[in-house]
Amino acid sequence: MRIVNILHKRLPLRSNIANALVNFSEHTVSLVAMVSDQVRNGRPVIGYAFDSIGRYDQEGILNGRMIPRLLKALPDALLDEAGKLSPARVLQTAMQNEKPGGHGDRAHAAAALELAAWDLIAKLDDVPAAVAIARQCGREADTRIGVYAAGGYYYPGEDVAGLRREVECHIERGFTRFKIKIGGAPLGQDLERAQTAVDTAATLGDGARVAVDANGRFDLDQAIAYGRAMSGLPLMWYEEPCDPLDYASNSELAKHYRGALATGENLFSAQDVRNLVLFGGMRPGLDIFQMDSGLSYGVTGYLRMLHEMETRGFSRRAAFPHGGQLLALHVVAGLGLGGCEVYPDIFQPLGGFGDDARVEDGHVALPSLPGFGFEGKAELWQELTALKP
């Protein structure tokens, strides 16, 4: 078993939407194809993956540093003791000669390669990626995964009626939990948006069904003001109010806001998570961690993050990764995390799950296709297969 080629492609996202800080119309994603010397049905077995949605591709890091390192490596350097491809060794090799710290975009680039290795391993074993991930961790994959619909972005000219229609559409599709954006409008307007989403979701029954996400827009005083203004709303969580590395502000906000806080989407290493747990005021049994394997060195990096959480009293069921696509779904199912975000309509062709995926009472079934199941998402599969070996 050896890797004979690794290919990269830059893919633009089709999304003209914005959150409190970012417009996504210019964002791109790195697609990678890891080509093996194994043959099935007359064709080489290829592992595919991509980095996370909502940033820019890492073409320079991948083609200039990481892919050459993997292709120059001795075949045995990428294999485990049983002679199977090892995602951890793929990551280790890709990161050769990199200094500690400064994770940034290289964490995303390395994640795409590590996740491609998982897709390849699972295809060789003819199992979903979640099953391959779970086996390596000595557990069984979850077969039914809780999901929530992420959206509620700021669209040009849209009012609360448009937001209401969006939530109603998600309800019709089987979703029972939702996330919307705040911080991109004045407080009064954002409160009206949040109240509209809560009232619309309340048709499903009592309970917290809506989360709000500020995308790191606020300083501490603004975050506290929003928290006080929203204190009467039954929210699932108040997400990333302040800069993601401002642990002191997150800790202070936790003293004022009694509901759940969520953060971690923009943390890319186990060291970042350790600092969040030690200094960010996170409360076991209440607050939510949102690290994304596609941004943080893949499953190997994510396991290190979980270790930092679990050894300090936090459950992995408090982890709801940012992602919104098939990669995140399989990682959630394979590691037994709390739930998965999904982008049903946006960030195409990456957002959402397979074309035949059905949401029932806020849950989806684990896809049965081998690997991450990209073949079941026609538009994405067309882009991936354009990466010719």
From TrEMBL:
<feature type="binding site">
    <location>
        <position position="239"/>
    </location>
    <ligand>
        <name>Mg(2+)</name>
    </ligand>
</feature>
<feature type="binding site">
    <location>
        <position position="265"/>
    </location>
    <ligand>
        <name>Mg(2+)</name>
    </ligand>
</feature>
<feature type="active site" description="Proton donor/acceptor">
    <location>
        <position position="322"/>
    </location>
</feature>
<dbReference type="InterPro" id="IPR013342">
    <property type="entry name" value="Mandelate_racemase_C"/>
</dbReference>
<dbReference type="GO" id="GO:0047808">
    <property type="term" value="F:D(-)-tartrate dehydratase activity"/>
</dbReference>
<dbReference type="InterPro" id="IPR029017">
    <property type="entry name" value="Enolase-like_N"/>
</dbReference>
<keyword id="KW-0479">Metal-binding</keyword>
<dbReference type="GO" id="GO:0046872">
    <property type="term" value="F:metal ion binding"/>
</dbReference>
<feature type="active site" description="acceptor">
    <location>
        <position position="181"/>
    </location>
</feature>
<dbReference type="InterPro" id="IPR029065">
    <property type="entry name" value="Enolase_C-like"/>
</dbReference>
<feature type="binding site">
    <location>
        <position position="213"/>
    </location>
    <ligand>
        <name>Mg(2+)</name>
    </ligand>
</feature>
<dbReference type="InterPro" id="IPR036849">
    <property type="entry name" value="Enolase-like_C_sf"/>
</dbReference>
<keyword id="KW-0460">Magnesium</keyword>
<dbReference type="InterPro" id="IPR034611">
    <property type="entry name" value="D-tartrate_dehydratase"/>
</dbReference>
<dbReference type="Pfam" id="PF13378">
    <property type="entry name" value="MR_MLE_C"/>
</dbReference>
<feature type="domain" description="Mandelate racemase/muconate lactonizing enzyme C-terminal">
    <location>
        <begin position="160"/>
        <end position="260"/>
    </location>
</feature>
<protein>
    <submittedName>
        <fullName>Mandelate racemase</fullName>
    </submittedName>
</protein>
<dbReference type="InterPro" id="IPR034593">
    <property type="entry name" value="DgoD-like"/>
</dbReference>
